[in-house]
Inverse folding.
């Protein structure tokens, strides 16, 4: 990863295309630099048609500058960008910030210009930010490399770092600063000809002034870079909250028409997010609710929720939102309970949720004491204070009380502003950095993500950095490995499979079956026939020599009928799987962004209908394997629900790890793998892939 | 249902407990009546300690009044309420509105007072509203029978009717009037000693000034009344939007501690809502988003969604929200497309979603023409206009354009205000009744419910009113019908079951099996053994006389071992179910609120683990049966997915209807019924309950 320090903290900046023509991009960018930044380095204005702008000297070219600036901000029209870039690269400028549009997003001509821009930068060792972007907004260090007329209003410094591709949605998040917590740095990387969102996530992971990283993505270009960045953030204890469009076909198509880049598989993206602790949200308001909560406080070791309100209906509603999200209501410590019982009236509810009832609202001291007691309870991870109404002075008093109570405790008090009426009480909470979510559901969804991140973090005891297996362009040709050979490879990799043997004649089939011991399964053996059952190529439960002999005849006839083209190697005779057990499946595909991805779940027809599957990028660790097993909806079935025998979960987890290691060891070769079904027995009985389809890259050189 | 006309439109009102003591309930209620209502009937003040208040004559008692008022509003302290109620009832006052607290919500003494209050009302034929409630807020006819200091500000008349139990959450919804659409009538029924939320839903269903009904519920007391009310609303074409707490144990417990009433089963409530077209939401903000959208426009026959925005990222985000909610993006008519192509720049996206790009935002006429063209497209049900940012004047102009475009078309334009910054543009949209949702996700969730209601309404072709089967207190004793007898009853009700016979000896078992034809199933026959498999009481696939004879020995031994207490009638010999097919289940229970409820879904272990079930209150109609089948997650499996044979869906739907009819015909007797498994064959093969457990009320008189 490039060190971006000089891009974020430059010592000198050249503005190429500086202008004093009102409302021009050159003028607006200049004004942001001169009037609205607090930059104490040198600023060079470059414009060959001027000698002076606003009383500052204007240089004819970057080449003519007395020193090499750390950054060249390029705002000249699209036709002139390449020449300027060439000049900058020649001068040895380390970073070019290209705000100009008309590149990859603007048809074929623009795409060609973008390719040339990249080539110029690569040749000169210059890094490019943009093009086609609103620029870089550094609030904490007050530097606007942007033409945005909003920059003068981006005044709230803060611990949130924002990395987005598009400018519009990024600006939407910037306006959430109105909720009272600021965004310290916003990178909006536009067409990402070079620097990507991931570069800025990586930078923010190390930046001491950033505590929470927020990102908006339409597509991830470089999976390895992205994974490295989010692992860096995780290692440094900084949560990454991500919103990525493309969960539906409509969204994928619209994003593609917008950025001309593919969004990638939503399932794979979400799996990678989950694997590395990235907190995925489903909308921008959820992103704001969640990130702003993290900016207030990091989750601690306790994850019980407290609820404190003065409305019985709201208490029930909020308790319900806790329950439906799988969160846990804390049990108050005895001293908290005793104090509430002493201070609150008889008809108040003093167990969690606390309902003080509205009649005590006028007693600010009482509220402060009782809320303070709840917030100091050691059993709590956070206290939710849903504010049902804007009742003017009463509500202002409540806001004051919350502010005072928070001063005496570290457990975050999370007020939720439920009313459409947003008066002075709301403004006071915002001013004091409470960033209130605006519905109980939304607030608790943010808390659920906050708690889940805390749990994830605690579960990650010293996991080492993961490197992607192998990202390759799609294979030009593939071939499937025979089942016999595939299972041999698995066995070699330490994965248990049932005894089997290839029989090249009817006699050999009978002999091998007898040697193996009945019952057996007979399957057609042919490199060209992958879906054996579909052509009548499988017979199971063969208990005698006669049945095996008959199976030979039937299967060969069926294969000849359905696939006269296929070369038949014979019959694969295999020991029949034990009785009982559960059918699962393990699949591996090569994702164009993240390399090999494993899909694991229920086998059989349920896989596609009920989609009870879970995914991980490879390689996985022991914690991932355990999490994958637990994430299945049908996990209770494996865990002994309804009086069923407990499945051999140890063997299953070991199998997942071995498959991962096998794929990693053969990463360049394996394109796809399908172990389906995988037989899983009761405790001690093991886990056995009953079928193995391995598709490998054909040896001819792959073309991109 | 009582006619509530005189409660909503009284000709005269007595205020019992009228006062001029500042901030007392009597004073606040009086002020709301005299200063903030526009009531042209007579108002009588009653207070034995005064002769005059605020210049108006004060009467010593209700008995002393010159005429009988339509309503007595009772605000005297709790100790005096019963005497006043008695007086009112004696005088023949039709409605008492009791605002006073200290009844059912306040411990045992209060509960007793509440019982007496109800007895007084019942004896005198007087209806009671309350007690323990903020009162009745009639905005459209400007009459406040309430002590709320907010009433003077409840000024926006409107088409929304609001019926709530609690006051706090109800007031929260009232404050959503700030979103620009008013609430015409708010009934907050408090302890519901007599009049319930359902009475007001029923009233609003007939009220000409109410178009949309909103309700907040903690528990439904009278299922029959509630179902009658929501059916009335459906018949009159008025959507009912409901939010009910109690979806989790936490919520149920908190609601119970708040209202001292059980919330009922969330699954059953939701099923009844779905059955009768009630739109259920999961939070109050969703309720507001949804109801306010209905208040703007009812869904029409087209349900395609249009998206119009000036941000590519927002276009993708919104299209994604459409897709993930199962909504459909409309295809524009050719003339719309042509006009967009002509007017918008080349780099704009002119197919749905429309992304004008930000550069054209300054051209208001262009925006108005193109937005107008989209909104007039005949293929659209609504147009979503997500507004990404508050950009001051630009956004105000956008708001103006939306307002102008809406004037020329009936298809609703739904602006979504996405930013936390809510400036003048937002206020203009509110002022013009657009009630903008505040995130794309929330907005589209409301649209999804709006579209779903339109579809539901179109599917309801002349369904006749449904009457609850039989609501009874829990049975003091039940007994299970033998499988033989249960299946006989089913057969009598026209439900196909496999041939079976009771064998009282081993010889009889063999003989009956032989007569029936092999293979057969043998099951223990005992009124005391319900879960036969669990004690080794079932053997399947018996193909010979010897196997049947052996089964007799095994099963009898197993039964004697596990249940030495049970009376054994013999073995039930039954024809074996055909090969293949799918296992389903049909269950019926008696809900204490709604009578018999049917649960239908996948059979076997998957029922509990995957919860792939759907429910309906009985009786069901053909449309319900069809909907239940379609609602199963595994419906594609039955419908021929993955090359499976299509199941006999006709037979399945017929079976659901016959079971419904059977339960209705035996409603007082049947407590519970479990047909599990139900065998469902391929098309033409039928649907057969393989087991039948019927639990009936024991004949002794049930005690409550």
């Amino acid at each position: 990863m490039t060190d971006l320090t000089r891009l974020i903290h430059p010592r000198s900046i050249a503005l190429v295309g500086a202008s004093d023509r009102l409302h021009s991009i050159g003028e607006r960018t200049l004004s942001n630099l001169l009037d609205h930044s607090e930059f104490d380095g040198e600023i060079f204005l470059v414009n060959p048609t001027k000698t002076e702008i606003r009383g500052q000297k204007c240089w004819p070219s970057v080449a003519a500058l007395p020193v090499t600036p750390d950054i060249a901000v390029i705002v000249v029209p699209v036709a002139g960008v390449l020449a300027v870039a060439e000049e900058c690269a020649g001068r040895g400028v380390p970073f070019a910030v290209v705000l100009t549009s008309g590149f990859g997003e603007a048809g074929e001509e623009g795409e060609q210009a973008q390719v040339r821009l990249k080539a110029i930068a690569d040749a000169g060792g210059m890094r490019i930010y943009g093009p086609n972007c609103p620029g870089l907004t550094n609030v904490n260090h007050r530097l606007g490399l942007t033409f945005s007329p909003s920059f003068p209003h981006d005044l709230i410094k803060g611990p949130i770092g924002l990395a987005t591709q598009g400018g519009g949605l990024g600006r939407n998040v910037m306006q959430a600063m109105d909720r009272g917590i600021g965004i310290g740095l916003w990178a909006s990387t536009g067409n990402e000809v070079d620097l990507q969102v991931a570069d800025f996530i990586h930078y923010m992971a190390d930046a001491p002034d950033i505590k929470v990283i927020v990102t908006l993505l339409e597509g991830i270009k470089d999976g390895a870079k992205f994974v490295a960045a989010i692992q860096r953030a995780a290692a440094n204890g900084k949560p990454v909250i991500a919103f990525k469009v493309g969960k539906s076909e409509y969204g994928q198509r619209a994003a593609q028409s917008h950025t001309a880049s593919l969004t990638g598989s939503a399932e794979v993206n979400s799996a990678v997010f989950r694997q590395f602790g990235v907190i995925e949200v489903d909308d921008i308001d959820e992103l704001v609710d969640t990130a702003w909560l993290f900016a207030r406080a990091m989750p601690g070791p306790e994850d019980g929720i407290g609820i404190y309100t003065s409305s019985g209906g709201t208490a029930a509603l909020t308790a319900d939102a806790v329950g439906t999200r799988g969160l846990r209501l804390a049990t108050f410590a005895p001293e908290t309970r005793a104090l509430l019982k002493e201070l609150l009236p008889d008809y108040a509810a003093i167990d969690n949720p606390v309902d003080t009832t509205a009649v005590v609202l006028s007693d600010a001291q009482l509220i402060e004491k009782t809320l303070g007691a709840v917030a100091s309870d050691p059993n709590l991870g956070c206290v939710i204070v849903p504010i049902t109404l804007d009742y003017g002075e009463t509500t202002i008093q409540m806001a004051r009380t919350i502010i005072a109570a928070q001063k005496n405790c570290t457990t975050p008090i999370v007020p939720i502003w439920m009313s459409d009426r947003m008066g002075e009480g709301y403004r006071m909470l915002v001013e004091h950095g409470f960033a209130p979510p605006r519905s109980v559901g939304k607030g608790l969804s943010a808390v659920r993500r906050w708690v889940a991140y805390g749990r994830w973090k605690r579960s990650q005891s010293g996991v080492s950095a993961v490197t992607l297996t192998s990202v390759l362009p799609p294979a030009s040709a593939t071939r499937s490995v025979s089942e016999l050979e595939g299972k041999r490879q698995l066995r070699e990799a330490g994965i248990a499979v049932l005894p089997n043997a290839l029989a090249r004649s009817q006699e050999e089939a009978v002999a091998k079956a007898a040697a193996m011991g009945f019952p057996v399964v007979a399957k057609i053996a042919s490199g060209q026939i992958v879906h054996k059952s579909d052509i009548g190529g499988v017979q199971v439960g063969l208990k005698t020599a006669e049945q095996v002999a008959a199976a030979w005849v039937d299967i060969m006839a069926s294969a000849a009928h359905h696939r006269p083209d296929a070369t038949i190697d014979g019959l694969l005779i295999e020991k029949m799987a034990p009785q009982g057990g559960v059918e699962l499946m393990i699949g591996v595909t090569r994702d164009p962004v993240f390399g090999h991805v494993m899909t694991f779940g229920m086998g059989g027809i349920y896989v596609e209908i009920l989609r009870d599957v879970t995914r991980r990028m490879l390689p996985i660790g022991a914690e991932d394997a355990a999490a994958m097993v637990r994430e299945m909806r049908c996990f209770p079935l494996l865990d002994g629900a309804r009086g069923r025998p407990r499945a051999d979960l140890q063997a299953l987890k070991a199998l997942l790890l071995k498959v991962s290691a096998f794929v990693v060891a053969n990463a360049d070769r394996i394109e796809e793998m399908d172990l389906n079904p995988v037989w899983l027995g009761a405790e001690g009985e093991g886990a056995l892939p009953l079928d193995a389809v391995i598709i490998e890259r054909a040896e001819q050189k792959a073309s991109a």
Observations:
- Confidence is low (pLDDT under 50) at residues 700-704 of chain B.
- The longest strand of chain B covers residues 670-680.
